[in-house]
Specification:
- Keywords: Kinase, Transferase.
- This is Inosine/guanosine kinase.
- Pfam families: PfkB.
- About 45% of the residues are buried.
- The chain has a nine-stranded mixed β-sheet, sandwiched between helices.
- By secondary structure, it is α/β, with parallel strands linked by helices.
- The protein has one domain: Ribokinase (UDP-N-acetylmuramoyl-L-alanine:D-glutamate ligase, 3-Layer(aba) Sandwich).
- The chain is globular and about 65 Å long.
- About 35% of the residues lie in helices and about 20% in strands.
- The chain starts with 19 loop residues before the first helix and ends in a 25-residue tail after the last helix.
Length: about 425
């Protein structure tokens, strides 16, 4: 387990008054119980530069998104196979992107639940998916299916217009019995997306998702929901508000999704409203940067040393941003805490990819949550665990970390990181590194 940010060895764990044998035993337990589990509609993203005539020949409306029939998909696949120099393949899926990025950042395992083609040929789309996924992401729990995984085609015409075609394949065929209760009950978090519970209402993957959520609740494991698209949320905001209230502990969204969910266009106000239904909220807001909100017990609050910020109706909202997040139910006197950070370095000079920046930020948060579990199991007597904190770091430092990861995603052409982040020059002023 890599801990977020720069640390010297002496800052990892206290070395005085410690039984080396006990520490060794605890470390083994920490390694076994420090991972996340994600459920996803396993799909591969296929991007091709083609002519407008090529697109219309398959009956696809230019600039729109269409659901492809099986016969239509196979014709498209065969046609693209004749244009190998113009086709690029990436492993896709919002949850899968997050688990991949988490494993790259933490250098620790994550587990992905979903389906995978039982028969895989070298060079096939399923093969490309496996090749573009970190070896730290454990895929042994994927359910084998007789057929293709999901495929999302992005066809780019000469004028730069993007046309999308989606072939579901067998991606929604995950069976509830393929979900391991033992795996989820020992994890640090269960990650799901909005697509799983609304776009697949009559599919078995929804049943599998709800079963996984039930297992997580039984073991008191945080359920993390990433919203994914504003249009899906806007169809029935009331339903989603109820779903978050009943099933979700940590919520990740962008400003459009936040507005669709809460009816509030201001990201900070949307975070505040969402906190009435869950324990920790991330809202990425483009040029505004990102916002986070959570809870902390009144006895564990720490005041910021950064300049105080005010928003419309929320004066000095970052006053306690040096506090570590907790679940509201674990607080004797819960207090809402907030933090905000502007884009890293003012934002990239050239954005190569907007897909996955929010997933990257969420991966950083999950890394911090797992680091907290790892440290608590390794050094249970540490003063860092005097309270049942959810995160290892303060809300302020998590914002810095999430912001940095988002930046790295924006400056590359893929939503998946190929390497961990370089060491950062973070301040020690808030005791973030000290144990």
């Amino acid at each position: 387990m890599k801990f977020p940010g720069r640390r010297k060895t002496k800052h990892y764990f206290p070395v005085s008054e410690r039984d080396p044998l006990l520490y060794k035993a605890n470390s083994h337990l920490a390694v076994e119980n420090s991972y996340i589990v994600g459920i996803d509609q396993v799909m591969v993203d296929i991007e091709a530069t083609v002519s407008r005539e090529f697109i219309t020949s398959f009956g696809l409306p230019i600039g729109e998104s269409s659901l492809l029939e099986d016969e239509q998909t196979e014709r498209l696949v065969q046609a693209l196979a004749e244009l190998p120099d113009h086709v690029r393949c990436f492993a896709g899926g919002t949850v899968a992107n997050t688990t991949h990025n988490y494993s790259v950042l933490a250098d620790s395992p994550s587990y992905l639940l979903g389906v995978m083609s039982e028969s895989i040929q070298v060079g096939s789309f399923a093969y490309q998916y496996l090749c573009n996924t970190s070896s730290k992401v454990n895929l042994q729990y994927l359910q084998p299916v007789d057929g293709p995984i999901g495929r999302c085609f992005t066809l780019i015409s000469e004028d730069g217009q993007r046309t999308f075609g989606i072939s579901k394949g067998k991606m929604n065929c995950l069976q509830p019995e393929a979900v391991s209760q033992a795996l989820i009950s020992k994890s640090c978090a269960l990650l799901i997306s909005a697509y799983l519970v609304r776009t697949s209402v009559n599919e078995t993957i929804m049943q599998a998702c709800m079963k996984a959520i039930d297992y997580a609740h039984q073991a008191k494991i945080p359920v993390v929901l990433t919203l994914g698209t504003q249009y899906l949320i806007a169809q029935d905001p009331t339903w989603w508000q109820q779903f978050v209230r009943e099933h979700v502990d940590i919520l990740a969204m962008n400003e459009q999704e936040a507005c669709a969910l809460t009816g509030e266009s201001d990201p900070l106000r949307a975070v505040d409203i969402a906190l009435e239904s869950c324990d920790l909220v991330l809202c990425t807001a483009g040029e505004q940067g990102l916002y986070m909100g959570g809870y902390c017990d009144s006895e564990a609050l720490r005041q910021t040393r950064h300049p105080l910020c005010s928003d419309d109706g929320m004066e000095q909202f970052n006053y306690y941003e040096f506090s570590r997040a907790m679940r509201a139910c674990d607080c004797s006197k819960p207090k809402k805490i907030y933090s905000h950070i502007a884009p890293y370095l003012g934002g990239p000079q050239q954005i190569l990819n907007t897909n996955g920046a929010g997933d990257g930020a969420l991966a950083a948060i999950l890394h911090d949550i797992v680091a907290n579990r790892y440290h608590r199991l390794s050094v249970p007597q540490s003063a860092k665990h005097a309270q049942p904190f959810l995160t290892y770091s303060s809300l302020s430092q998590i914002c810095k970390y999430a912001n940095r990861v988002s930046y790295d995603v924006l400056i590359q052409s893929s939503p998946r990181l190929s390497r961990g982040l370089p060491e950062r020059e973070d301040s020690l002023e808030e005791g973030y590194w000290a144990i």
